[in-house]
Design goal:
mainly alpha; single chain; two-stranded antiparallel ribbon; 2 strands; globular
Amino acid sequence: MIDQLPALQIVVPLLAAPICLLIRHPAVVRAFAVVVTWVILGIALKLLDTVLTQGTISYAMGGWQPPLGIEYRIDILNAYVLVVVAAISAVVLPFGMGSAELSISRDRQYLFYAAFLLCITGQMGVAITGDAFNIFVFIEITSLASYALISLGRSRQALQAAFSYLIMGSIGGSFILIGIGLMYQMTGTLNISDLSQRLPAVMDTRTIWMAFAFLMVGTSIKLAAFPLHQWLPNAYTYAPSAVSAFLAATATKVFYYVLVRLIFTVFGVAFVFERMELHLMLAPLSILAMFIGSIAAIFQKDMKRLLAYSSIAQVGYMTLGLSFANVEGLTGGLVHLFNHALMKGGLFLVVACVTFRIGSSKIEDLRGLGRQMPFTMAAFIVGGMSLIGVPGTVGFISKWYLLLGALENGWYLAAALICLSSLIAIIYIWRIVEVAYFQPRDDETPVQEVPLRLLIPTWLLIGGTLFFGFTTDLTAGIAVQAAEHLMGGGP
């Protein structure tokens, strides 16, 4: 059974999704889905432990050895991503355990859990597969499930947001497929490890240059990298609360993994940063994302929309670290993949807690909640401090490595801009703190703290921003190993 864990990582949630459609009973399907997420978390942790102790895992599907057959190839990088997706899923899915908290009608909850498990399947498949075409297949599974999850929101804007995401996602997926097809035309293989060995012989062809361009643009759309981020604010704002928390914590991280894998494993550092000089475009756009996302967040009137624009800025930090093309910068991007998942997942759950009690996520409606919902708003403060990068939180660890990466390259202006953009985050976090703690409520009716079934998942994520802010070996240590492996050119 242990030898089959790579396949079970995908098979378990994939088979569980249609079973949810058969069960239908809200309480039973809810318990079943939660158990499934904890099972796949256990599998992901075991795979990570195996990779750390024994090295890269190669699993040949159907007994066909790579590169002829489809391979699941797990190294330290994708084992790390598998744990991130599985951990967030296992915490977010039990959140609320009821229709009111999920903002989904009781008779449609089985659809929610089925789509949720399919989305997990797609994200894990993207991370675990060693086949380029299967990356596209799993991307489409992830995207289709995400469209359905977003559309389950109760407002009409949810359908519009899902449709906008569908259009942009379809364009991005088409670009990725074209890029993969062009590489297959020139190399005759789809195995990622085999591609990395065959591509150098045809790197000077215009076909490969076009493949690189299509893949970068397509992945950037899925990642919501600036300026291809238009779908993200509405998708995060109008989706059900649990969906916003899950997608904000996992979706962009999985596509960041795809971008990293393409650049460092498939095409290689020399081609991307020396011949194509991607950093000349990627670094300025990343810095623009950091500032434009943060500045836009300042002027939002809704907490979910504020956090959505903040996510655009945080994606900018990750892509900036990638553009440094050194171990420290890449480490900063990879560790921020995990850290931002904790921060943003927890903060969106805070919004869900607030919405559960007052029926609104507008900032002006938060007056007086600091005293009436002390544990919920304390979670927001801790998560906000991590977004800013206060020492002792995971946000500080990410930005520290990014600063080291910038200084190693002699990019002193970039280092200064990283610090300045962090200061902008203080403004939009303070806006909410000011309203919640220093403005009295107009309505004298007391607001009660949310139940433990909402607080516990929220504080598991927010508490993680403090725990991993001090215990850095568990995250930054793995990120350093992954960065060194990638910079060394290992497949």
